[in-house]
Amino acid sequence: MDKVIVSGARLAARIGVSEQERAAAQELVVDVELETDTREAARTDDVRNAIDYAAVHALLAATAAARPRALVETLAADLAGAVLESFPARGVRVLVRKPGALRPQGADWAGVEITRRRDG
């Protein structure tokens, strides 16, 4: 299956279990892979037959900023749902990394990766 990929998108989101964590937006780093057939876009060389990855990024940013969330799992599910609702992808993989989550413990980041398919 072909994929359209947005990697390393830096998104602002109010996220965390405590109110203090959610008080200000934090930077999250998100990778998204949309499963799609790119043959028609390649054959026609026409952007109207392709998934616009700039529009994907804009949707990710708007979804992340839309409301505060306690869990990274919730944000990942919201991002996957928004992508499947807005673009003709068969499935989507979303990786949300929270760079500051375990920095004091010496980890680069903590996060969640999910895969969702249009058929369930």
Description:
- By secondary structure, this protein is an alpha+beta fold.
- The chain has helices at residues 19-22, 39-44, 53-65, 72-86, and strands at residues 2-13, 26-36, 91-98, 110-117.
- The protein has 4 helices and 4 strands.
- It has a 4-stranded antiparallel β-sheet, covered by helices on one side.
- Helix 3 crosses helix 4.
- It is elongated and about 50 Å long.
* Biggest beta sheet summary: 4 strands, antiparallel
Mean pLDDT: 95
Q: Any idea what the radius of gyration is? A: 15 Å
Q: Enumerate the strands of the largest sheet in spatial order, edge to edge or round the barrel.
A: 1-2-3-4
Which runs of at least 5 residues are low in confidence (pLDDT < 50)?
A: none
% residues in beta strands: 25-35%
How many helices? The count is: 4
Q: How far apart are the termini?
A: 17 Å
Percentage of residues assigned to helices: 25-40%
Q: Give helix and strand order, one letter per element, not per position.
A: EHEHHHEE
Helix and strand content put the structural class at alpha+beta
Shape: elongated
The beta-strand count equals 4
Properties at a glance:
120 residues; alpha+beta; 4-stranded antiparallel sheet; elongated
